User: What shape does this take?
Amino acid sequence: MTTAPASGILVACHHCDFLHRETALAPGGVARCRRCGSMLYRNSGASLDRAVALTLTALVLLVIANAFPIVALEFQGQRDATTLVGAVEALYRQEKPLVAGLVLVTTVLAPVIELAGMLYVVLPLRFGRVPRYFAHAIRLMQALRPWGMVEVFMLGLLVSLVKLGGFATVIIDKAFWSFGALMVVMAAWTVSWDARELWSRAQADAKP
Amino acid sequence: MTTGTTAGLGLLACHSCGLVSRQPRNGEHAECGRCGAPLHARKLYSVRRTWAFLIAAALLYIPANAMPVMYSSSLFGSQQDTILSGVAYLWSSGSWPLAIVVFVASITVPLLKIIALTVLVVSVQRRSTRWPRERTLLYRVLELVGRWSMLDIYVVTVLVALVHLQALATIQAGPGAVAFGAVVVLTMLASMSFDPRLIWDSVDTPHG
Assistant: This one.
């Protein structure tokens, strides 16, 4: 198997298969397909330092968001608080294991594994090393990407609080704010890396 | 004869790292020379798999909306809620912006996604050459909005976890929630299985 002609790097559009030659972009710039208009690649302008910082921040927030109660409900003197895992457990006990599993994967497992994979990849890169199983880690992150839904969960949380507000006192707890912050950090984190950039970084670092 | 497309030039693009390589001559199983991911000119069995997921999603869309997603009971009586009655409750309690958000995310998005993907697959099977750019754009929009349908699953999760003051009030997840979760996952799998490059193949080789 041979690689493509060395005269300039070729970029294929994943949406219409049109072939382009890579051109340098200003930081924050986006290259779009000439034929169908889909995004080809971007120059995030983000340093590896920023990627490491965002990944660590998101991981810490995710731990806090899972360790503490999100909201509590006060109703005629009784108080009930729930964590995310507690909510998953409640669904499981009500014989809804599929729904419980879906919630667990989309709000906890997929983001945790994706962030851990990112840390595993960017931390060594930051120090000029390419970690073992680099390619596998990237593919794992790409596969998990669509299934992490922290921002959708946040909106669902707001809707359920509005529904409960009618008949009980809702007390917002620590993990609620962590989820809010996590949503913002994850949005910045998502655009701070793409597989192309990480690969060209790894190729520059790898000793022949 | 095609010019400018990756496949037309006898090349293959890696879906993971983006590297463009030559197609192996003897048509054997190809692997990316840089990251080792399997290479395919088009997603495997794209049309068949998209149809399978779409049909399953369309069938489950009916119980997802007709069956209750939630049973609530309190001292004052019990009640069951479908997705639509949940929207109606939000509307009548004055939170109409949230009612609109939930209606769009839970009812409109899955339905439009099923219809739009069906249109896309049929257009590919009929080798339509009309509006390829618009159809690609439609596909990109579908990829972005599908995840927001998970909203109602999270609402049920939070309500179930918080309202279990055994003597006073409880909320139980209903069978509609299982069907609804399945619809979201199946429509996501359907859009992942569809290969938008097939839209352009009919344009590139109209009589092929």
